[in-house]
Design brief:
single chain; about 375 residues; 5-stranded antiparallel beta sheet; 2 helices; about 5% helix
C-alpha cells in the first residue's frame, strides 16, 4: 500500500502543533490574575482578613480571603500562586491560586513549632522554605516543602540561630540568607521575649541544609534583633533591626556581603530615636545604592545612601510599614490605607483605600 508522505507529515505537524497550542493555552500566568506587581495582607473594615494583589498603578487586582491576620507572603516565581503566612506565632500558611482564589494547600507547622510569617521559593519554584520556631528546643528551623508535590514537607534544616524571621535567596545561587532575630519566644507566653539579656542575632547563609557562613553584630549591639532583609542583584544583603535594649542605639540598618564584616548605616541619635527602635520593613533600590526602611511606630520612612553609609532623607507617613523597590521607584503602604509610589523628581502617585495594609509589601518577580 502506497503511503502519502506529504499527507503523513502534514498530519504529524498538525498533531504536534495541537499539542503545542494546548500547552500554551493551559499555561496560566500572573497576567491571568490581573498582572499584579505586589502582594500584601490586609484587614477589611468588616473585620475580614485578605491577601491582595496590587498593580503598578496601585489599584487592587484581586482579594483572596485569609482565616486570620496575615503577615507576609511568598509569590511563586513561575505561576500565579502565593503562600500567605500567619502573623507570628501563627501555625498556618495557605497556598492560594491567585486566579481562581482556590485554596490549593494548607501548610501546618509541625508539633511544637510555629511559623514566623515569612517564606521564600527556590529560584525554580520547586521548593518553598519557611522560617520556624522549635520552641521547646529554643532553636530556629527552616522547613522545606515540595511545591511540585502538593507542598508536602520533605525536610527541615537548622536556621543557624534563634528566632529566624525573614528569609531570602541570593540571586543566581541556591544559597539562602536568614535573619535570625535572636529572640526566644514560646506560645505559652504569647509574644513575650524570654532571653533579652542573652540574645544573639545573626545573619546565616544556608546551602543545601548546611550553614556555610554567619555574620554577627558588635557585642554592644547584641540586643539589636535582625528581622527583615532586602537583597541586591549583586548579592548585597540589606537588613533592618529592632532594638530591644534600654537607651539609645547606634544603628537600625546595615548591609552585608558574604566573606566580609557587616557594615552599619549611620544617622544622628535623634533620627534613630525617631524610629522608636523599630524597622518594620526594608527595600533596596535596583542599583543597590539606596536602602529604604520604615517604622510604623515612628511613622517614618528613612533612606540611607549605601556608598556613604549615612541617612540621606526622612519622610513622615502615618503608620507606614510596607515598602518595596520597583525599578527606580519606591512603593510604600500604611495601616491607614494609603499607598504611595514615588519616582525620583516626580510627584508621588497616591491611593487611599478603605483597607488596613499589614506589615509587608512583596514584589512579584516572576510576572
Amino acid at each position: 500500500m502506497a503511503i502519502d508522505m506529504e499527507a503523513s507529515n502534514k498530519g504529524r505537524r498538525q498533531f504536534l502543533g495541537g499539542i503545542f497550542a494546548a500547552s500554551v493555552v493551559s499555561q496560566v500566568t500572573w497576567a491571568d490574575a490581573g498582572s499584579p506587581a505586589f502582594l500584601s495582607a490586609a484587614a477589611k473594615p468588616d473585620g475580614r482578613f485578605v491577601l491582595c494583589g496590587i498593580g503598578e498603578d496601585l489599584q487592587i487586582c484581586f482579594e483572596r480571603p485569609l482565616p486570620a491576620r496575615g503577615h507576609a507572603a511568598a509569590a511563586h516565581p513561575m505561576r500565579p500562586e502565593a503562600v500567605a503566612f500567619a502573623r507570628r506565632p501563627g501555625t498556618f500558611a495557605i497556598v492560594i491560586d491567585c486566579v481562581t482564589g482556590q485554596q490549593k494547600a494548607v501548610l501546618a507547622a509541625p508539633e511544637q513549632r510555629h511559623f514566623y510569617g515569612h517564606g521564600a521559593f527556590s529560584s525554580d519554584g520547586r521548593l518553598l522554605f519557611t522560617t520556624e520556631n522549635d520552641y521547646e528546643a529554643g532553636r530556629g528551623r527552616i522547613g522545606v516543602w515540595d511545591a511540585h508535590d502538593g507542598y508536602n514537607r520533605i525536610d527541615e534544616w537548622d536556621s543557624g540561630g534563634v528566632g529566624p524571621h525573614d528569609i531570602k535567596q541570593l540571586p543566581g545561587t541556591e544559597i539562602l540568607v536568614v535573619a535570625n532575630g535572636g529572640i526566644e519566644t514560646h506560645p505559652n507566653t504569647g509574644r513575650t521575649k524570654l532571653n533579652i539579656a542573652t540574645m544573639a542575632p545573626n545573619l546565616s547563609y544556608v546551602a543545601d541544609g548546611r550553614v556555610i557562613e554567619t555574620a554577627t553584630l558588635p557585642d554592644e549591639m547584641h540586643k539589636n534583633s535582625i528581622r527583615h532583609l532586602a537583597i541586591g542583584h549583586d548579592k548585597k544583603v540589606a537588613f533592618g533591626m529592632q532594638w530591644q535594649g534600654n537607651g539609645p542605639v547606634a544603628s537600625l540598618v546595615g548591609v552585608h556581603r558574604m566573606g566580609r564584616p557587616a557594615q552599619l548605616m549611620t544617622a544622628s541619635l535623634t533620627a534613630i530615636r525617631d524610629m522608636r527602635g523599630y524597622v518594620g520593613s526594608i527595600a533596596l533600590s535596583s542599583d543597590g545604592q539606596i536602602i529604604t526602611v520604615t517604622s510604623p511606630r515612628g511613622g517614618l520612612l528613612q533612606q540611607y545612601d549605601v556608598g556613604s553609609a549615612e541617612l540621606s532623607q526622612s519622610l513622615a507617613i502615618q503608620d507606614v510599614c510596607g515598602v518595596a523597590a520597583f525599578g527606580n521607584d519606591i512603593i510604600v503602604s500604611s495601616g491607614t490605607g494609603e499607598m504611595r509610589r514615588t519616582v525620583s523628581g516626580v510627584a508621588p502617585l497616591q491611593r487611599h483605600m478603605d483597607i488596613q495594609w499589614d506589615n509587608h509589601l512583596i514584589a512579584i518577580t516572576g510576572r
